[in-house]
Design brief:
Elements: H1 15-26, H2 38-55, H3 59-72, H4 79-86, H5 92-106, H6 116-125, H7 128-131, H8 134-154, H9 178-201
Helix pairs in contact: 1-2, 1-3, 3-4, 5-6, 5-8, 6-8
Length: about 200
């Protein structure tokens, strides 16, 4: 029960209390006007907290969801609307197109991903991503994307895109020092290892 339990991450508050305050800041007056009394506020926190825990919604999903709420809803969202902002349904074909485009851009470090699950699914498919048309591997792509999404939620994959590993020069043409090479690998290791922390804290956010 991470949403209804006090956490050092939120300065000793319950995450659901933080979420209530955040929605109040994003929708000033409109948010609190929904609640007739303090008891209604407590009922809301208990209900939403239980449902968020039941669905396994992570702090990271809520962080992203709050940003989407600003552009999606002029009025405070209902619970179903809020969940849609936290977990938008994926268009598999559009995600496939994004993956092929961004993996090509990644060669120059200019890739920009709308969802980390798309990146990890692209990594899973490897060269097949560009060697086959969508219709030929759409089943594998869907499975890879669904698995990546689940692994991110469970903390088994990092919600962050790791930096591109620059190819090391051929022997005799080294322009990168040993120290710099170690630094690059350490940065990648740090990002990937955060999944352990995310999993311990309930998914990160």
């Amino acid at each position: 029960m991470i949403w209804l339990t006090t956490s050092p991450r939120f300065k000793g508050k319950k995450p659901i209390d933080y979420l209530f305050e955040k929605l109040d800041l994003l929708y000033p007056k409109r948010w609190k006007d929904q609640f007739a009394s303090p008891s209604h506020v407590e009922s809301w926190k208990q209900c939403w907290g239980e449902e968020l825990d039941e669905m396994g919604i992570t702090f990271e999903e809520v962080r992203v969801g709050l940003k989407r709420c600003i552009t999606m809803y002029d009025w405070p969202p209902s619970f179903p609307e809020f969940i849609k902002s936290c977990r938008p349904s994926l268009d598999y074909e559009r995600a496939f197109i994004e993956a092929t485009e961004q993996m090509a851009l990644r060669k120059t470090g200019k890739d920009r991903w709308s969802n980390p699950a798309i990146f990890w699914a692209a990594v899973k498919l490897g060269g097949d991503l560009t060697n086959f048309p969508y219709l030929a591997i759409k089943g594998r792509w869907k499975s890879a994307l669904d698995k990546a999404t689940e692994d991110i939620r469970n903390g088994d994959l990092s919600p962050e895109i790791p930096p591109r590993i620059k190819a090391l020069p051929a022997p005799g043409k080294t322009t990168v020092s040993v120290g710099e090479a170690k630094k690059r690998f350490a940065e990648i290791h740090e990002i990937l290892s955060r999944k352990v922390v995310n999993k311990a804290e309930g998914g990160g956010g």
